[in-house]
Amino acid sequence: MLAKESKVKEIHDKVFESANKAKEASKKYGVENVINATIGSLYDEKEKLVTFNKVVEVYKNICSEDIFGYGAGITGTEDYKEAVKRVVLGENYSNVFNENYLDVVATPGGTGAISNTMKNYLNRGEKVLLPNLMWDSYKLIAEEVGGSHQTYNLFNEKGEFDIEDFKNQVFNLISVQESLVVIINDPCQNPTGYKLSIDEWKAILDVLKEASEKKHVILINDIAYIDFDERDEKEKDEYRFLFKDLPKNLLTIFIFSMSKSFTSYGLRVGAQLALSSDENVIKDFEKASKFSCRTLWSNVSRGGMKMFSEIVLNKDHYEDLQKERNEYISLIRERADIFLKEANDVKLETYNYKSGFFITIPVKKNIKEVVKNLEANHIYTVVLDSSVRVALCSINKGKVKGLAKKIKDCINKVN
């Protein structure tokens, strides 16, 4: 009975499959004897889900009507949109971007934001440009809207962003497509933890500016993990300013996720923030996105939007939240430092980690056998095509200690 296009749909979600294996092992052998490095959520040192005190406090004080009622408007409340603008573009965004046009659309999490963007900007039969190391759901979303994907090498031989291959793939695609959609997941890239330098961002934008002289270019900047980056506000502003006054034929859409920033995964609140030098481009974005919102999810959690705006638009609340979040940023850094030092000691290769939830280890060959060895030692990771992802966000320091050597030993057994 399925429609023709739906008959081929089948999902094998690597994250949930690995997580389920880890849960079963924990029941059988005890949580203390299992390393569950699959979970992409923030856990404390007791391996319990982190909930920020300020988030819980504010949410509990929201009136019932603001939790259970429909959100005001299909694309989100005005307070929520204002809060997203401040978080993504900075407190002074109205002055900094005063010669640009922008709009915000509320979505169910970052996934909803990416889906809504691809639905309206990726032409059927065309390819979105993705890094070869990526969050796999990008590919599924492209397929869902009638497209596919092409990849570029994320890293060159020096472990830096491979700008040459990126440029080659950009111009390969624009030579055969009506437009180009590119996804850059930065900072705290999933799955590697890489962070682009300002110079690397400048080089990327130079390539896209050149491409925009020939075709429409849509840059999807997935910033889901940006609030767990270690840059200070001055450095964040330097990054934000890169997107000012770009060519009219180059549209930037930032993908924001409250799931990550506020560890509020189940509330499903996120946003698209579109930024352009062309007013008509933003008007088109608003019209198409609103239409898609209405047909897919109608509107977003009113309580989630209310909680977010209550915190962000209140200076004291927001400062309290940031202080609390900074403690966990430091904790993740401690876990990463332990792992990276020990990896270096045992000569375990990792991709170039800078910040964020994940570290990824390349496995040159026999990855299935390596994973079997890991699981035999009660170590569960997310398995990629030729690498394994370790979620440092969810395992305590006690379990991080010695983990690099265990992984190295499992690789050495078969390679």
Report on this model:
The protein is an alpha/beta fold. Helices cover 46% and strands 15% of the residues. The protein is built from 17 helices and 12 strands. The protein has a 7-stranded mixed beta sheet with strand order 2-8-7-6-5-3-4, sandwiched between helices. The protein has a 3-stranded antiparallel beta sheet with strand order 9-12-11. The termini are far apart.
> Which architecture of the largest domain would the CATH scheme give at its second level?
3-Layer(aba) Sandwich
Total beta strand runs: 12
Average pLDDT, to the nearest integer? 95
Largest sheet: 7 strands, mixed
Quick structural gist:
This protein is of the alpha/beta class and 415 residues long. Helix content is 46%, strand content 15%.
Set out the fold topology.
Elements (H helix, E strand, L loop, with lengths): L13 H16 L5 E2 L16 H8 L3 H5 L9 H12 L3 H4 L4 E7 L1 H13 L5 E5 L5 H8 L3 E5 L10 H12 L4 E7 L12 H15 L3 E7 L10 H9 L8 E8 H4 L8 E7 L2 H18 L5 H11 L2 H31 L12 E5 L4 H10 L2 E2 L1 E2 L3 E5 L5 H4 L2 H10 L3
Parallel strand pairs: 1-10, 3-4, 3-5, 5-6, 6-7
Antiparallel strand pairs: 2-8, 7-8, 9-12, 11-12
